[in-house]
Amino acid sequence: NQARLERMEQFQKEKEELNKGCRECKRKLAECQRKMKELEVAERGDGKGEALEKLQAEAQQLRNEEKSWENKLEELRKKEKNMPWNVDTLSKDGFSKSVFNVKAEEVEETEEQKEKKHKSFVERYEKQIKHFGMLRRWDDSQKYLSDNPHLVCEETANYLVIWCIDLEVEEKHALMEQVAHQTIVMQFILELAKSLKVDPRACFRQFFTKIKVRGPEFGSG
Fold first, then answer.
1. CA separation (Å) from 126 to 68, 158, 190?
2. H helices of 170-215, where?
3. Which one of 95, 143, 192, 204 has the minimum C-beta count within 10 Å?
4. How high is the pLDDT of residue 214?
5. Can you give the pLDDT at residue 118?
6. Hey, which bits of 78-149 come out as E strands?
7. 87-214, which class in CATH?
């Protein structure tokens, strides 16, 4: 129902902010360590020792920050397990593993491969992803994904998240909230698939069936 989706949306937003903060902290730490290495191999010169000390202090502070971010994320993960809309709760509540015959692909990809895959996917399907992001009714979303099952994937979810951030920056709040709903729906399907160890394309119909039974469609469509 509406309240459940709003809680899911709020929780997801918090999770994204923490992940973003953690990534940024790791990036700064890597940059700091790179500068330290450069200084260590550089020729002796005025101020080298002082600069190195400053960088070491900065690196230590960033390590502490990184630990703090990771602790917050761990707390959030524990909290997520107890949520009434957690994927495990949903799967126990009527999703049966036996109805799926498509196995989830468990192939680890490098960051570079993921980025390349995301870029080529967006170039090919951006128009379709945006169309999905604007749908308001459960039935419309289900039908659109049935017609375009290739959209049920991580790349679509990632694109929608970035689109939400862009809309928020542009202060298009109403539009951002609409797209955020669809982002949550896609992320929820992916989480459910992960929990059941199946391909997301094999369980999105069951997701919609279950969610429609649980509550009315969101939005005014």
1. 36, 12, 19
2. 173-196, 204-214
3. 143
4. 59
5. 84
6. none
7. mainly alpha
pLDDT for 178 beyond 80? yes
8 A C-beta contact, residue 189 and residue 91: no
Q: Give the whole-angstrom CA distance, residue 217 versus residue 65.
A: 41
The predicted-structure confidence for 123-135, as pLDDT tens digits, reads as follows 999 999 999 999 9
How many C-beta neighbours within 10 Å does residue 221 have? 11
Give the residue from 109, 139, 113, 147 showing the smallest Cα distance to 209. Answer: 139
Contacts for 207 with CB less than 8 Å, ≥ 6 apart:
188, 189, 192
Angstrom distance (rounded) from CA 114 to CA 112: 5
- Residue ranges per structural domain of the chain: 2-81, 87-214
Q: What integer is the mean pLDDT of 201-206?
A: 88
Whole-Å CA distances, 183 to 13, 34, 78, 153: 11, 36, 22, 11
Q: For residues 213 and 1, is the Cβ–Cβ distance under 8 A?
A: no
Q: Which residues, including other chains, have CB under 8 Å from residue 18's CB and lie 6 or more apart?
A: 69, 72, 73, 76
Residue 95: count of CB within 10 angstroms of its CB: 20
Q: How many CB atoms lie within 10 A of CB 85?
A: 16
At position 139, the amino acid (one-letter code) is: D
> Looking at the predicted structure, is the pLDDT value of residue 95 above 50?
no
Query: pLDDT value at position 220?
Result: 34
Please tell me the predicted confidence (pLDDT) of residue 4.
65
